[in-house]
Amino acid sequence: MPYKNKIAARAALEMRSGQVINLGIGIPNLILDYLPTGLEVFVQSENGILGIGPRCAAGSEDRNLIDAGANYVTLNRGASFFDSALSFALIRGGRVDLSFLGTLEVSQNGDLANWIIPGKMAPGIGGGMELAQKAKRVIVTTSHTTRDGGPKILTQCSLPLTARGCVKTIITELAVIDVTPQGLMLREIALESSLDEVQDKTAAPLLFPPGDIPRF
Amino acid sequence: MIDKTTTISNALNRVHAGHTVMVGGFGGPGTPFTLIEFLHQQGTKNLTLIKNDANEPGMGISKLLEAGQVQTLIASHIGLNPTAVAMMNRRELEVLLYPQGILAEKIRAGGAGLLGFLTDIGVDTILRDSREVIHLDGREAILERALRADVTLIHAAIADRAGNLIFAKSARNFCPLMATAADQVIVEAEMVVETGSLDPDQVHLPGAFVDFILALDELTPDYGILPQHAL
Predict the structure, then answer these.
(1) What's this model's pTM, rounded to 2 decimal places?
(2) Most buried pick, A84, A135, A195, B114, via CB within 10 A?
(3) What's the CATH fold of domain A3-30+94-207?
(4) Does residue B128 belong to any structural domain of this protein?
């Protein structure tokens, strides 16, 4: 399985029935493909939809039905449409239970940096800042390292922040890591990885729970 | 009988050089491609545009940007338009970027006759460097000013002659908000029906916010399915 799909499949297990969920662009967008059977969640899209389903099969797209990443999507039962101000009332008002976001960097205290590389990339803020700051729980889904193999999980972010101390869990192709008041706690480790590899590729100290660490 | 339908030239005569123009749409849905195309042909310059995004190269407001008709773009995310990003980086285009819901709320506030509002979004980030930070009940907050425009251009699925509008699915997005926040509001509609034929419970925007309606004869390919976003 490609690493992005592995991350998405593991991330899908964090959802609970009844939750309102927002999926960011990139890996988060793949999560719906791995929705556990029987789980009923409402997926919000910032452009004004609650209740989107998986991406639309080729040939049956609706020109008026896209998600915030411009993908043609389907609708689940109980879906609704609304304007952009109401959509962000959902977000800033605290009605989004779970927000999955991609990232450039994340720090050991849960700081998130994912919207700008000064002088290089600054396409805009989109909905990410409001989701990061106001969703009840923020999960980062990301490759464990950068394209060059450098660490993304750091003691401190070097890039401008999206929001401070917002991330609760980090899911990568190598590990599931919780941000705790004591520091980064390794919760699960990938079948094909090792403690040494995870720590080696993480530029912040990891805490290990007592006993065997579950594999995924 | 009130009839707000008009010709495209009569409607777009209202847009003058130097105007601030709000343009509905989030990506394709809700973008008034036909009104934009005529504004492009009209050649009106020194515009300030307010739109969630910059569409995609060669489409929608990107045509206005590429033709040098736009001085300033106020938006949330222009990442799907590398042409606009390049213009911003070369400083050929001034771009002011806001968190998406803050942009929506600035428009909503302008439409509701408010001067601005206070928010904690971004108060711990570099956004504070370019914003006015004030103290409220012991907390820091960013003062966001309301936005208004000279003209708003939006797309609707159905209009009646009095201007009552129905939007389709995710094409609603910024359209009803922008319709409240401009001195003149021009709507292009896929279908125009007689006043009285819409169920009042189904109207998304009351006609009082609408000044001119253009009935679309056809939908150009820009309105269709974009293969780059399909599976």
Answers:
(1) 0.97
(2) A84
(3) Glutaconate Coenzyme A-transferase (3.40.1080)
(4) no
Question: pLDDT tens for residues A40-67?
Answer: 999 999 999 999 999 999 999 999 999 9
Residues 59-118 of A with CB under 8 A from B: 61-68, 70-72, 81-85, 87-89, 91-92, 116
Q: What residues of chain B lie within 8 A of the CB of A158, using their CB?
A: none
Q: Which of B125, B209, B219 to mutate to test the interface with A (most CBs of A within 10 A)?
A: B125
ipTM of the complex: 0.96
B209 within some domain: yes
| Residue A22 pLDDT | 98
Q: Is residue B181 part of a domain?
A: yes
The 3-state secondary structure of chain B reads: CCCCECCHHHHHCCCCCCCEEEECCCCCCCCCHHHHHHHHHHCCCCEEEECCCCCCCCCCHHHHHHCCCEEEEEECECCCCHHHHHHHHCCCCEEEECCHHHHHHHHHHHHCCCCEEEECCCCCCHHHHHCEEEEECCEEEEEEECCCEEEEEEEEEEEECCCCEECCHHHCCCHHHHHCCEEEEEEEEEEEECCCCCCHHHCCECHHHCCEEEECCCCCHHHCCCHHHCC
CATH number at residue B212: 3.40.1080.10
What's the number of domains chain B is made of?
1
Taking only the tens place, the pLDDT of each residue in A150-202 is 999 999 999 999 999 999 999 999 999 999 999 999 999 999 999 999 999 99
Minimum distance, in Å, between the CA of residue A39 and any CA atom of chain B: 25
Give contacts of A 135-174 with B, CB under 8 A.
Answer: 160-164
